[in-house]
Amino acid sequence: MDLIADGVGWLANPVNWQGRDGIPTRLIEHVQLSGVSLLLAIVIALPVGLFIGHTGRGANLAINLANLGRALPTLAVMAIAGSLTVLIDPQLGFKLYSTLIGMIVLAVPPILVNSYAGVSGVDRELVEAARGMGMRERQILARMEIPIALPVIVGGIRSGAVQIVATATLGAIFGGGGLGRYLIDGISQGAAAPGKIFGGVVLVAALALATEAVFALAQRALVSPGLVAPAPGGSSRLQPG
Questions:
Q1: Relative to the CA of 230, which of 10, 125, 145, 164 has its CA 20 to 30 Å away?
Q2: pLDDT (tens digit, 9 = 90+) per residue, 125-148?
Q3: In angstroms, rounded to a whole number, what is the distance separating the alpha carbons of residues 38 and 162?
Q4: For residue 218, which phi and psi values (nearest 5 degrees)?
Q5: How far is residue 155's CA from residue 108's CA, in Å, rounded to a whole number?
Q6: Is the pLDDT at 38 greater than 80, yes or no?
Q7: E strand or H helix at 228, and its extent?
């Protein structure tokens, strides 16, 4: 109970909402870091997932690499990346780029796998019918497969986003900013700052829950009333209007 009271007191203290180390500043840092990481992961994983889902080429290799990425410890990835990126940029290589790489590696697998599963799960009869109507492969992908698979694709992005928000706190270990600073600084201060640690945990959890809620709403909104979105490994079917 003392820890909870200390955490509430820390969150309620106006001093902690001001300045460079204030909650709004750290929150913006965390959101920016998470947003850039997610965007880069989408740029990398989404085209690959769409391609292998549509063509079936290289699917086993891509999925196996994605599963390997899931098994890599994020902290170890960040440490290895930091030891390399610091040689390129001594200022930001260890503090920023290592965290970005770690978050990208974390988010690529769910985005890639869901993109592949969503597109490959579209009913092949619909695809063949589109080909019979003279649609080109790019048109089939853009006008049929992606719209049908979009809820599943967004589900992968949703999973990656939540994982990034929750795990980006590790960047503070390497001197980065964000909400993880409260955890690292609080731990370094020991018994003198239990409220800061608990408050940091609450803020990270709240941001992760908010991220989950936003993407869940977006995913639900993307489900067309005329289509049932394919679950990973399943197929879609046209439903009467």
A1: 164
A2: 888 888 888 889 899 999 899 999
A3: 10
A4: -65, -40
A5: 13
A6: yes
A7: strand 227-228
Question: Helices 98-120 and 23-55, interaxial angle, to 10°?
Answer: 40
Provide the domain limits for residue 109: 2-238
- Do 106 and 159 meet the contact criterion of CB atoms below 8 Å apart? no
- To which H or E segment does residue 192 belong? none
pLDDT confidence tier of residue 222, bands split at 50, 70 and 90? confident
AA identity, residue 157 = I
CATH assignment at residue 187: 1.10.3720.10
Tokens of residue 212, six digits: 């989950």
163-172 burial, b for 16+ CB within 10 Å, e for fewer? bbbbbbbbbb
**pTM of the model as a whole:** 0.87
As a whole number of angstroms, the distance between CA 94 and CA 80 comes to: 10
According to DSSP, residue 237 is labeled E
Tokens of 156: 């992968």
Structure tokens at 225: 């009333």
3-class SS of residue 227 = strand
Task: Give percent helix, percent strand, percent coil of the chain, each to the nearest 5.
Answer: 80, 0, 20
Average pLDDT, the chain: 88
Give 143-199 pLDDT, tens digit per residue: 899 999 999 999 999 999 999 999 999 999 998 999 999 999 988 887 668 889 999
**228 backbone dihedrals φ, ψ, rounded to 5°:** -100, 120
